[in-house]
Amino acid sequence: MESIEKEYERLRKKSNLSKSISDVDKCIQLLQNARQAIANDPSSARVSIAKLQQTVPAALEKIKDDEKEIYSGLSRYGRALDKTFKATTTYSTNDYDALSSQSDLIKRAIAMHLIREGQFAAASTFREEAGPIDIPPHLTTEFVEMYEILNAMRIHRNLGPAIAWARSKSTELDHRGSNLEFDLCRLQFVWLFLEQDGQMRAFHYARKELKQFQEKHLDEIEKLLGAFAFQTRLKSSPYAPLFADPEKCFNDVANAFTKEFCSLLGLSAESPLYIAATAGAIALPTLMKMAAIMKDKKTGWSTVNELPAEIALPPGYQFHSIFVCPVSKDQTTESNPPMMLPCGHVIAQESLQRLAKGSAVTIKCPYCPKESSLAQAIRVVI
C-alpha cells in the first residue's frame, strides 16, 4: 500500500490539471486579445494573425507538456495499483451476485452516499438518470444545512451556526447524553481567549454563555476561567493543555457535530456505502483466493449466505455483537444463547442440548477432548 500512497501523493501534488488549465486559459486569452484587436482595427488583422502563428503553437506545446506529466502520473499510479492488487483470471465475478436482484437498494445507497458527502448536484443528476429512488425529500435539505454549518466552522472558524443548531436541539442532545453544545461553547471561549487582545471578550462570553452549563460542567468551566490568572505565561501554566491545539479541537468538534447531526436523523456518522466498499476491498483478496481454490478443486460453498473463510476486519468495521455457533452455523438469539464450556469453547445452547442427548453424565466438547456436564456450561452475554 505504501507504493500506492506514494504515487497518489505525487499525482495529487504534481500531476494535476491546474497547470494545464492555466496554460489553456493563457491560450484562450491570446485568441481573445487578437479578436479584440481585429475588431477595433480591421486593418491590423494580418499582423494579429501573424503574432498568433508565433505564440499559439508554443502555447499548445506547453499544454501538451502539461498533459504528458499528467498521463505519466496516471500511468505510474495505475502500475502501482496493478502491482498491489494483482488481477486473477481464475475467478469470474458473475459466478454469484448477491445484489443482482437489489438494484433499487444499490441506487438508493449511491444516491444517499452522494447526498451525505455534500455532492448535491451529482446526487440530483443521478436520481434523474437512475429513475425514482426512495429517499425522503427533507434529507437533502438537512444535509445542505449540515454542510453550511461545517463550512462555517472549518473554513471561517465561525462556531455561531453550530452553537445555534445545538441549542435548538438541546432536548434531543441531552436525551442522548451528548455534550456537543458545551464543547462548542468551550471552543468558542478558547478561540476568543487566544485572539490578540481577546481575553476581555472571552471573559464576557464566559459570563453570558458558560453559566448555563455550571451544574454539569463546573470543573471544566473553573479551569477555563483559571487561565485568566496566567494570561502572560499561558504556555507554562497548568491550563496550557486546554489551549494547546485549537485547530485539532475544531476538527474534533466538527466530527462530533457531524456524528450528532446524523444520529438525530437516524443515520450513522459515516456513509454505509463507503464502509461496505472498504470492507469489501479488505475482504476481496481472501475471497478471490478461496474462490480460485474451490474452483480448482471443484468444490463449492456450503451456502451462498456463508463466507468460506474468516475475514479479519478492523475494529471500526464491527458493528454488531453477534455470535454464530460453530456447530450449527446459526446465529444465537435470546432463546438460543451462546454457552461456554469449562474448556473455554463456546457453542449455541441448542447445539449443547443436542450433544447432551443420550448422555446422562458427560458431554464431550466438539473441539477438544475435554469432557464436562450440561450444568457446567455458562451462558455468555454479548
Structure overview:
This protein is mainly alpha-helical and 382 residues long. The chain is built from 14 helices and 5 strands. The model has no long low-confidence stretch (mean pLDDT 85). The chain folds into 4 domains: 2-84; 136-264, no CATH class; 271-317, no CATH class; 320-382, 2-Layer Sandwich (Herpes Virus-1), CATH 3.30.40. It is extended, with a radius of gyration of 31 Å. Helix 9 (180-194) runs antiparallel to helix 12. 11% of the residues are buried. The chain starts with a helix and ends with a strand. A 3-stranded antiparallel sheet has the order 2-1-5. A two-stranded antiparallel sheet has the order 3-4. Keywords: Cytoplasm, Metal-binding, Zinc, Zinc-finger. Its main location: cytoplasm. A zinc finger (RING-Gid-type) spans 325-368. It is found in: Cytoplasm.
Question: Which secondary structure elements does this structure contain, and how are they paired or packed?
Answer:
Blueprint: H1 2-13, H2 18-40, H3 45-84, H4 103-116, H5 120-130, H6 138-154, H7 160-168, H8 170-175, H9 180-194, H10 199-209, H11 214-226, H12 246-264, H13 272-297, E1 338-340, E2 346-348, H14 349-356, E3 363-364, E4 371-372, E5 378-379
Antiparallel strand pairs: 1-2, 1-5, 3-4
